Recover the amino acids of this structure.
């Protein structure tokens, strides 16, 4: 490792950052290393033979913001967003070129600096072919009264000989695609642009580095102190540079910057966190709760330098043990109530241990066990004035509604007591109860107050735990599902704000279209919001639901964030997700209302999946951190992390890190190995862990199972499946603290 004083780096694009052999992708590690260099105060300029207007087409500017651009072909030099040099084509020469070109049956497109990004032909392909334009040829652009820097002639390679007599003597051309020739006024060299930038910025050439791969870069090398060529460059060029770095396929730019100590970064311990559902904590009573073990876990986080604890939704679970389909977003599942803390309050005593060392939660059994003891505690508490509970219920209007709803649910059990009849099938007296009444039914006072008691205790214990975490400088990241369950107080009480018919039946449901994970798409069963109706009251139902949760945690993750922009609607009666359609969500208006009413809300956007550009644009307009899941992104060079991203090894829906690596094909393992410079597959796991640690992030989160290097037997959830294996994994004690394999050090 050598330390050198470099203040500026000029880096080529094609063959240096952009890998054409691998499907025209950028090397993520190299891009991230350049970003690290920028954060350390080193300026990074793109210096390319490409015409200025084609840089945008590569997609590079979407993932990397250079300090400037030098375009050899066209003679454009930019520092920041300001053009400091441009060599325009005289109108007389351009007129002559256009006249002869059109007469010859070719097509010409004129590009000015001002209009460069907009005027260039739009296509997903990077290397165009003549066939692409055989049927749809871009029209001639109006160049009059514009300063034209360059223009494009569309032709086949075998038509080059046509161009020689067409080009005025003072114009130079460069074929940069099979179907196109870029024309510029003078012949420009990369070194000219380097000299202009160095002079404008007052940087000496001895503090400059250039990285490239071709003979075109030689002039750039001659004007800097540190010249670096890629291993994939011509062998003769190797002898003319100071350093030969690795091939682009081995992250060559990343390698050279690390070699010279230009991309080293200190990764602060404060930005690490652990993902662990409350239910997965050890406890004496079969499920993690808000008791002593939760406080002990926060102590462990503090000791190990973790500043974040991410949990799953705390609301009552739904079908398949899922917390993402609940009866009430604001309510807390009573299973999380600590019976030990109720003992400390003197409400119950002599509670026995109950499945304290199991590694799976039996939710049905735990519900029955805790219900028994909670009822005993309530019987003791109701002998007091119950003033604290009553104050809680008074401040939270949803509690009485929730308690009434659950009481009615319990009244209308099916033949199987674990099956609940949907609320729209209840007798109308109960189905429409709060349409006709303001207060809960008096004849159900005992049942309703018991549920109110449970919610008060759950909230009280959660707030105590939250305050303790804050005292230890550990932030809680909670989670909010976008959709609610049909059997929820949200739909029961606000049925006009959901897509229901006159009989209160769903007319559509949420889901997603076919993708690489599900050939027929997915059907989730969740009712769809009636956003046209919600817009009339400024989305108050969704705003207040979100706002309430933000006030009971430090940061709130918005699950299925994309639906705030565009959501998928599947008509009722559909047998799969193929027949759905995309509709526009509330977008910025929702966030305007949210921040107006809850100005301290801090959010994370769950922006995973195949997204429309508008989803990312909404996320960025609202300045929300997104999610970077390494198990997904390590194969996608267009998915860089960054200072406003939450990096995860995986989430509750993924395989564990060990299970994922073990399940990879040899081809995928080979891809990761060359990308991470790992010569021995036995060390592949270590290489991936090191990669995760060093990715730039706002926060880096590891599921606890990954810190322990557990395999898929500890997986939390497998989407698309139902069974006792989902959401049920838990720690059976505290011996795991001695088994941690990944440390925040």
């Amino acid at each position: 490792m050598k330390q050198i004083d470099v203040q500026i780096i000029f880096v080529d694009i094609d063959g240096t950052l952009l890998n054409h052999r691998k499907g025209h992708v950028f090397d993520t590690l190299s891009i991230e290393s350049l970003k690290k260099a920028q954060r350390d105060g080193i300026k990074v300029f793109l210096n390319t033979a490409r015409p200025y207007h084609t840089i945008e087409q590569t997609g590079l500017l979407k993932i990397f913001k250079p300090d400037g651009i030098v375009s050899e072909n066209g003679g454009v030099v930019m520092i920041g967003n300001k053009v400091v040099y441009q060599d325009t084509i005289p109108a007389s020469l351009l007129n002559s070129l256009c006249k002869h070109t059109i007469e010859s049956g070719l097509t010409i497109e004129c590009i000015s600096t001002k209009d460069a990004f907009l005027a260039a032909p739009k296509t997903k392909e990077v290397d165009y072919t003549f066939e692409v334009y055989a049927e749809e040829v871009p029209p001639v652009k109006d160049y009059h009264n514009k300063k034209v820097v360059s223009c494009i002639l569309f032709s086949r390679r075998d038509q080059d000989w046509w161009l020689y007599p067409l080009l005025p003597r003072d114009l130079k051309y460069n074929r940069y695609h099979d179907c196109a020739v870029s024309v510029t006024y003078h012949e420009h060299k990369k070194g000219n642009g380097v000299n202009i930038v160095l002079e404008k910025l007052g940087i000496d050439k001895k503090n400059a580095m250039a990285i490239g791969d071709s003979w075109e870069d030689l002039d750039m090398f001659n004007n800097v102190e540190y010249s670096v060529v890629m291993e994939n460059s011509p062998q003769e060029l190797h002898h003319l540079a100071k350093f030969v770095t690795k091939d682009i396929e081995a992250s060559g730019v990343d390698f050279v910057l690390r070699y010279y100590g230009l991309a080293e970064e200190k990764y602060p311990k404060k930005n690490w966190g652990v993902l662990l559902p409350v239910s997965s904590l050890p406890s004496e009573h079969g499920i993690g709760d808000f008791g002593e073990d939760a406080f002990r876990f926060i102590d462990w986080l503090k000791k190990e330098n973790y500043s974040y604890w991410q949990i799953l939704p705390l609301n009552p679970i739904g079908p398949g043990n899922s917390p993402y389909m609940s009866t009430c977003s604001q309510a807390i599942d009573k299973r999380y109530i600590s019976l030990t803390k109720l003992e400390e309050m003197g409400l119950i005593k002599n509670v026995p241990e109950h499945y304290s060392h199991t590694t799976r939660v039996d939710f049905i059994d735990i519900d029955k066990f805790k219900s028994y003891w909670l009822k005993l505690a309530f019987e003791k508490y109701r002998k007091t004035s119950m003033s604290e509970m009553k104050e809680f219920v008074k401040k939270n209007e949803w509690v009485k509604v929730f308690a009434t709803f659950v009481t009615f649910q319990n009244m209308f059990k099916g033949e199987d007591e674990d099956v609940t009849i949907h609320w729209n099938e209840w007798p109308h007296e109960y189905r429409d109860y709060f349409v006709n009444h303001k207060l809960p039914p008096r004849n159900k006072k005992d049942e309703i107050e018991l549920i109110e008691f449970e919610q008060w205790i759950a909230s009280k214990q959660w707030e105590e735990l939250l305050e303790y975490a804050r005292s230890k400088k550990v932030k809680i990241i909670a989670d909010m599902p976008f959709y609610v369950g049909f059997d929820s107080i949200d739909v029961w009480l606000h049925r006009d704000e959901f897509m229901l018919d006159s009989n209160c039946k769903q007319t559509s449901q949420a889901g997603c279209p076919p993708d690489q994970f599900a050939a027929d798409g997915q059907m989730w069963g969740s009712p769809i919001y009636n956003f046209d109706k919600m817009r009339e009251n400024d989305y108050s139902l969704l705003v207040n639901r979100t706002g309430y949760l933000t006030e009971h945690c430090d940061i709130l993750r918005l699950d299925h964030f994309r639906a705030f922009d565009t959501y998928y609607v599947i008509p009722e009666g559909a047998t799969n997700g193929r027949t759905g359609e995309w509709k526009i969500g509330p977008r910025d208006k929702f966030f305007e209302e949210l921040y107006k009413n809850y100005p301290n809300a801090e959010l994370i956007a769950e922006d995973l999946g195949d997204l429309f550009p508008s989803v990312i644009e909404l996320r960025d307009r609202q300045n929300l951190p997104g999610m970077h899941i390494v198990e997904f992104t390590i194969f996608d060079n267009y998915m860089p992390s960054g200072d406003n991203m939450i990096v995860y090894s995986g989430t509750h829906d993924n395989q564990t890190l060990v299970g994922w690596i073990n399940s990879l094909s040899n081809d995928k393992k080979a891809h990761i190995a060359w990308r991470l410079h790992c010569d021995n597959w036995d060390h592949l796991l270590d290489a991936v862990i090191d990669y995760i640690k060093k990715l730039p992030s706002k926060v880096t989160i590891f599921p606890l199972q990954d810190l322990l290097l557990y395999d898929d037997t500890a997986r939390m959830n497998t989407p698309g499946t139902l069974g006792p294996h989902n959401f049920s994994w838990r720690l059976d004690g505290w011996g795991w603290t001695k088994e941690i394999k990944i440390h925040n050090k």
About this structure: Residues 314 and 332 are 5 Å apart (CA to CA). The longest strand covers residues 148-154. The chain has three domains: 8-79+190-259, 91-184, 271-738.
